[in-house]
Amino acid sequence: MEKLRNFINGEYCDPTTGEYIDNYEPATGKVYSLIPNSGTEDVQKAVDAAEKAFPIWSKMSIDERSKILVKLSEGIAARMDEFTKAESRDNGKPLSLATHVDIPRAVSNFHFFATAILHFASESHNMEGVGVNYTLRKPIGIVGCISPWNLPLYLFSWKIAPALAAGNCIIAKPSEVTPYTAYLLGQVAKDAGMPDGVLNILHGEGHTVGDAIVKHPKIKAISFTGGTKTGEYIARTAAPVFKKLSLELGGKNPNIIFDDCDFKEMLSTTLRSSFANQGQICLCGSRIFVQRGIYDKFKAEFVKRVSETVVAEPNDPKAKLGALVSKSHLEKVLSYVKIAQEEGGTVLTGGERVLLDAPFDNGYYMRPTVIEGLSYDCRTNQEEIFGPVVTITPFDTEEEALMMANSTVYGLSATLWTSDLKRAHRMANEIHAGIVWINAWLVRDLRTPFGGVKASGVGREGGWEALRFFTEPKNVFVKY
Ligand code: NAD
Q1: Span 254-446: which CATH code?
Q2: Structure confidence at residue 71 (pLDDT)
Q3: How many whole angstroms separate alpha carbon 311 and alpha carbon 250?
């Protein structure tokens, strides 16, 4: 069986622990590779390498750094087929999604930050007759980047690309559930001419190697994307030692649909915003609020379309949904269907596991699920499920929709469907979210701030926000 390896100091190596963890293929439910169960000694080895590399990388001209990162981006694009197949196999997502979304986006992430750094500028503040201040933006040093399983290389690269562009050295850890494309990335970085020790990729579990990254005194900043509970733990651990923190956490996003929307466009986008990537995107709109005037029409057409949605093995070109990422996650999502029923909800379609023919009979498939009849404040409508499960709830007024939308602890994104321009702006202004889409969903411009409020996180990624996070400002004053 294939054994994945850590990437430290420009070389692939075995974990010092000598231990490995099973890596499952969600489509079949079978173990298909082994990943290093790394520990504190591996983190130390990576930090030693990063410390040696930092003066080389941080003092390299921006032009040269940029060229290496552009090559890295091109290196992934050149191996597109291998990367897309690996991502789909590791995660269970349809191959078409990995091909059209995940890997092209990883290519763009590197290209975007490779070129953004060429334009990144710092400020100067003149004090008339007194002197001038100028602000330097220095790389932080060694930073830790920890990412989740839902969009593996997409989110891994979204962190490490700006960190590298800004001149930092990195200790990165992909999710132990989906390590494969991060494993492939080491070689691509080496081929692109990345100096040894600049990018170190460690595999293993969160509570062991992840924790060791968060605690290591020489790792000065942590950029984390994952669950709110993990974020809470990381914040508690890193705050007393004054690490810079960026936390992109969970969501329970509202999708608010008014009577006056473009029904056809809303319906097809709502199918995607509910179930893309098996509903495992932090931006999926899992609480659908529909204005009373079109509620019955929406319910009938949405449920029909959802019940016709094809769930199939990831390589099947007809697959709209593939497998969920793991057995435990499938069980968690199914448990919420039970909770919803106990809370008085009615399952309108789905709600059960899908059993495909061999060799996919042990895969983690589930029917996309629509539930109605729940109060806005029940557990199903307040807790993050992170799977192919949505609730539909009618509303009458704008105020009521806003109250229900803002009722959770989360505040990542929101979607609004209306043709009333004033209402759209009014709602966007009032809604608790870091990102609002009006008559659209998941349209991403990499220059815009990305992140959430409340329990959805602290800080923003994207554009200048990311480059600011991965640099320390130093103000210098010169007297006239
Ligand atoms: P998770 O929190 O379980 O794990 C995320 C990463 O953190 C993994 O690499 C894991 O190994 C590591 N980790 C776990 N415990 C750790 C610890 N104690 N110390 C250090 N690292 C640790 O999350 P997940 O299940 O992989 O991902 C799903 C979650 O991620 C959902 O809540 C989803 O909403 C969230 N998410 C948020 C965004 C966003 O941009 N806000 C994007 C994608 C996913």
Answers
A1: 3.40.309.10
A2: 98
A3: 25
pLDDT digits (tens, 9 = 90+) for 175-210: 999 999 999 999 999 999 999 999 999 999 999 999
Beta-bridge mates of residue 321: 311
Of the candidates 248, 313, 372, 465, the residue annotated as catalytic is 248
Atom of ligand 1 nearest to the CA of 456: 41
Beta bridge partners, 413, equal: 435
Rounded mean pLDDT, 104-114: 98
What CATH number should be reported for the domain whose range is 2-249+456-479? 3.40.605.10
Give the pLDDT of residue 356: 98
Domain boundaries, the chain: 2-249+456-479, 254-446
Domains 2-249+456-479 and 254-446 share a fold: no
**Amino acid making up residue 279:** G
Pocket-forming residues, ligand 1, beta carbon under 6 Å: 146-150, 155, 173, 175-176, 205-207, 210-211, 214, 225-227, 230, 233-234, 248-251, 282, 384, 386, 412, 452, 456-457
Residue 227 Cα to ligand 1 midpoint, Å, equals 4
Would residue 282 show up in a list of annotated catalytic residues for this protein?
A: yes
Q: Which two tokens stand for residue 6?
A: 């850590």
Mean pLDDT, the chain, integer: 98
Place of tokens 């949605």: 309
What are 259's strand-pairing partners? none
Contact assessment for residue 188 and residue 76, using Cβ atoms and an 8 Å cutoff: yes
Distance in angstroms (rounded) separating the CA atoms of residues 395 and 387: 24
Closest-CA residue, ligand 1 atom 9, reads 175
> Which of 38, 146, 151 is the best mutation target for the ligand 1 pocket, counting ligand atoms within 8 Å of the beta carbon and taking the most?
146
DSSP result, 174-227: --TTS-HHHHHHHHHHHHTTPPTTSEEE--S-IIIIIHHHHH-TTEEEEEEES-
| Dihedral pair phi/psi, residue 357, rounded to 5° | -75, 160
